[in-house]
Amino acid sequence: MKNFNAQPFALPFDPRTTALVMIDMQRDFIEPRGFGEALGNDVSLLRTAIVPCEKVLSAARAAGMLVIHTREGHRADLADCPPAKLTRGGKTFIGTDGPMGRILVRGEPGHDIIPELYPLPGEPVVDKPGKGAFYQTDLHLILQNHNIKTLIVCGVTTEVCVTTTVREANDRGYECIVPQDCVGSYFPAFQKAALEMIKAQGAIFGWVSDSASIVEGLRA
Average pLDDT in the 68-79 region? Predict the structure, then answer.
């Protein structure tokens, strides 16, 4: 067993039963002219997570760990997109034409993962229609097949898809650790509150750490 330095206390882990889950590091959220910017957000706040994520991703690959990527998006016919999500904010964004193709539609350029964190051949990519990575996906089955017990969860956005996934994972018995510089939010106050919620009351949903501690733990 090894240990990750974390809050509220160190997390013991076995690299053989630990996986890295990279949540929704997609062009539509991270890059200018994508869905995030169309909603009026400053995407530079999310881009700060790219370099720390690169470091953790490299360390996980070097350790031979299972690496899983997720993408939020929908069928081209939008049959899997609920009306409340389709018209969020009072306007229709999902499925409409944008600079990187139809927004959040699978197969469009904006739906794909950013080049800096692009999956290697053999790394599973889980396409999800909702916020959580377990909802209507085969993520749980993939993790079970690899005997995974611990998840390193990175990605965007902290208060939405990341924390939803961590809560889903917690209910399924997984121990989750979130490197705080490997997640990002368009709203700094939401970022702070979301991380506090994860580690509150003795790691009620999981542990909070940082990229340097994750890399150190994997290399120890």
Answer: 97
CA atoms of 150 and 60, how far apart (whole Å): 13
Per the structure, how many domains does the chain have?
1
Does the annotation mark 81 as catalytic? Answer: no
The string of pLDDT tens digits covering residues 8-21 is 999 999 999 999 99
The pairing of strands 2-4 and 11-13 is antiparallel
Q: Are 3 and 76 within 8 A, CB to CB?
A: no
User: What is this structure's pTM?
Assistant: 0.97
pLDDT in tens, 167-194: 999 999 999 999 999 999 999 999 999 9
The domain that holds 15 is classified in CATH as 3.40.50.850
Q: Is residue 106 part of a domain?
A: no
Distance spanning both ends of the chain, measured CA to CA:
10
Q: Which domain holds residue 27?
A: 2-74+114-219
User: For 22-37, what is the mean pLDDT?
Assistant: 96
Of 24, 112, 181, 210, the catalytic one is 24
Catalytic residue among 28, 53, 112, 128: 128
Which has the closest alpha carbon to 179: 217, 145, 126? 217
Annotated catalytic residue, options 81, 161, 176, 182: 161
Give yes or no: 161 in active site: yes
Mean pLDDT of the chain: 96
Residue 29 within any structural domain of the chain: yes
- Reported as a single tens digit per residue, the pLDDT across 119-128 is 999 999 999 9
Q: Is 24 a catalytic residue?
A: yes
| Residue 94 domain-assigned (yes or no) | no
